């Protein structure tokens, strides 16, 4: 179990363990490098998997939204505990509809590496009795020694992958614009890309990615839940496009898109999972998987004739040896080519392909795209690593994961 926590791609399972042991409802994990002026939020979690109370922005991911007295304790690496709800109110933003009663915080005393950590635990169901505060403090001391071993390992791997990806996304503003005025493309491609651009005004992928880079709390999902997440994004994009088509009939005609009321042209495919697979939990870079899904769909929607297929498979790990059991999450997006654009500019020339390659490589995965010589379909495929939660750990925190 300790090997998994050290090798995991993010802090999620570690956070769940702390919530369980310290009997807390919410956890915030802050970190500060020697060059940082303030502590930065690296991960947060809740006992009941609630979403944030609002859309978190950059200013919410620093220590600035915390009470001054708590910030002073953080700066001096001192323990903090207060039974006042006023000091715990900052945690409410990270748990929808929650009103925390009290909180406590403690530093993780790591002497090497030039990085400092501070953990804040919030309680919303059990009042701050002296007995509970004493018990929570006792178990925090036990957890702190464990965190000294785990946190540096996770952080070093996260920084390695995040640096590569951050360099790329900072070079394109936004992540990259969906252009529709390229004279080298067929007119229907430009018309389609214009519709897609309008549809994507409702989805801020750039903000999601920047948050994923700044934070490293990779979520934990069951395998069916991973498939469901991708299916939801496909349906969401389909509905947004349908809405734009109804508002821009002229563009729809130029795009050669049929009436979407006939049914979705994005076909979701999924292999049946075994009982064991259905109860398998794994941590993976879900934000990047969604980003790559969108990029592949932008391309497929621009060039397809009749149907687009999207499939998520799970394969045995075939990469480097690891003390932690891994899986490959394989996303495949395939589409036929419209007769109007066959022989025109290759879909691989756009910047989205480069973005997908960079995203996949940043987390130890790979991305390829090209025409399948047998089927004649254009196929884009991403393979991202996922870290399987070991059974021993899964049984201890199952109710916090599901």
What does this structure look like?
The chain is of the alpha+beta class and 402 residues long. It folds into 2 domains: 153 residues, Beta-Lactamase (2-Layer Sandwich), CATH 3.30.450.40; 222 residues, Heat Shock Protein 90 (2-Layer Sandwich), CATH 3.30.565.10. The chain has 13 helices and 12 strands. The strands form 2 sheets. Strands 6, 7, 8, 9, 10, 11 and 12 form a 7-stranded mixed β-sheet that branches. Strands 2-1-5-4-3 form a 5-stranded antiparallel β-sheet, with helices on both faces. Strand 1 and strand 2 form a beta hairpin. The longest helix has 41 residues. It is elongated and about 75 Å long. About 4% of the residues have low confidence.
Helix and strand topology:
Blueprint: H1 2-7, H2 12-21, E1 26-33, E2 40-46, H3 68-75, E3 80-82, H4 85-88, E4 102-108, E5 115-123, H5 130-170, H6 187-199, H7 205-214, E6 220-222, H8 223-247, H9 249-255, E7 266-269, H10 275-278, E8 281-283, H11 286-303, E9 308-316, E10 326-335, H12 351-362, E11 366-371, E12 378-388, H13 391-401
Parallel strand pairs: 7-9
Antiparallel strand pairs: 1-2, 1-5, 3-4, 4-5, 6-8, 8-12, 9-10, 10-12, 11-12
Helix pairs in contact: 2-13, 5-7, 5-12, 6-8, 6-9, 6-11, 8-11, 11-12
């Amino acid at each position: 179990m300790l090997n998994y926590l050290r090798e995991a791609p993010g802090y999620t399972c570690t956070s769940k363990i702390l919530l369980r042991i310290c009997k807390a409802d919410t956890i915030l994990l802050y970190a500060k490098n020697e060059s940082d002026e303030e502590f930065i939020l690296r991960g947060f979690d809740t006992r009941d998997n609630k979403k944030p109370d609002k859309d978190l922005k950059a200013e919410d991911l620093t220590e600035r939204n915390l009470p001054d007295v708590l910030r002073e304790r953080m700066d001096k690496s001192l323990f903090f505990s207060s039974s006042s709800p006023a000091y715990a109110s900052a945690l409410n933003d990270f748990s929808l509809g929650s009103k925390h009663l009290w909180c406590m915080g403690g530093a993780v005393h790591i002497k090497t590496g030039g990085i400092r950590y501070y953990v804040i635990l919030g309680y919303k169901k059990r009042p701050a009795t002296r007995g509970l505060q004493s018990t929570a403090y006792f178990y925090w001391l036990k957890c702190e020694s464990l965190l000294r071993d785990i946190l540096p390992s996770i952080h070093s791997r996260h920084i390695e992958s995040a640096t590569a990806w951050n360099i790329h996304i900072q070079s394109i503003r936004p992540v990259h614009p969906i252009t529709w005025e390229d004279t080298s493309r067929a007119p229907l491609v430009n018309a389609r890309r214009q519709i897609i651009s309008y549809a994507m005004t409702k989805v801020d992928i750039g903000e999601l990615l920047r948050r994923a880079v700044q934070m490293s709390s990779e979520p934990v999902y069951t395998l069916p839940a991973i498939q469901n997440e991708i299916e939801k994004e496909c349906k969401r994009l389909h509905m947004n496009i349908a809405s734009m088509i109804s508002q821009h009939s002229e563009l729809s005609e130029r795009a050669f898109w049929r009436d979407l009321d006939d049914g979705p042209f994005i076909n979701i495919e999924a292999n049946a999972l075994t009982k064991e697979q259905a109860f398998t939990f794994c941590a993976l870079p879900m934000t990047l998987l969604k980003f790559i899904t969108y990029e592949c769909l932008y391309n497929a929607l621009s060039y397809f004739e009749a149907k687009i297929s999207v499939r998520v498979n799970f394969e045995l790990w075939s990469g480097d040896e690891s003390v932690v059991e891994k899986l490959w999450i394989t996303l495949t997006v395939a589409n036929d080519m419209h007769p109007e654009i066959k022989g025109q500019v290759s879909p691989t020339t756009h910047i989205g392909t480069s973005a997908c390659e960079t995203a996949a490589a940043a987390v130890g995965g790979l991305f390829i795209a090209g025409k399948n010589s047998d089927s004649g379909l254009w196929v884009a495929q991403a393979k991202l690593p996922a870290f399987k939660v070991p059974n021993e750990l899964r049984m201890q925190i199952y109710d916090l994961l599901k």
